[in-house]
Amino acid sequence: MTKTPLNKKHILDKALVKDLAELLNETSLTEIELSDGAFKIRVARQAGPAAHMVYAPSAGDGAPVAPVGASSAPSSSAALPQDAVKSPMVGNVYLAPRPGADPFVKVGDAVEKGQTLLIIEAMKVMNPIPSPARGVVKAIFVQDSQPVEYNEPLIHVA
Questions:
Q1: Pairing status of strand 135-140 against strand 110-111
Q2: Each residue of 103-137: pLDDT tens digit?
Q3: Interval 43-76: pLDDT, tens
Q4: Sheet with 110-111, side-by-side order of all strands
Q5: In the chain, what are the domains?
């Protein structure tokens, strides 16, 4: 793969797009985004439908309420709040620090700003995802070990 710098004149560089597409095919990534100042290029491929579990607060043990398919994702703002913590990267989400351990947080838990909510593994690096604010975990939109996409809602803290 050749190294092609971003074009400062914002002219579409077909070689760059081709290189990025080849990188997608060579890896398990589903999208790549590059930016250089005001110029941004994103290359993505369609991922297959993935089932998601929606966790909602309840008087019970916080078990999954219902599976939600990609084609039937909730469209109401109450189901997926605009202020939900979203994935900053593509990777696999882990709700606990290691297999068999208690999760970082559960629905109904009080959290502090900066507290780790979950981790996302991307390219063999574990990235903690912190709470953006102090609050209570209202919902968890992902399952342990689930692949996630960039900007996908993960958890709601209010």
A1: antiparallel
A2: 999 999 999 999 999 999 998 899 999 999 999 99
A3: 776 554 443 333 333 334 444 443 333 333 444 4
A4: 85-86, 153-157, 135-140, 110-111
A5: 1-46 (no CATH), 52-157 (2.40.50.100)
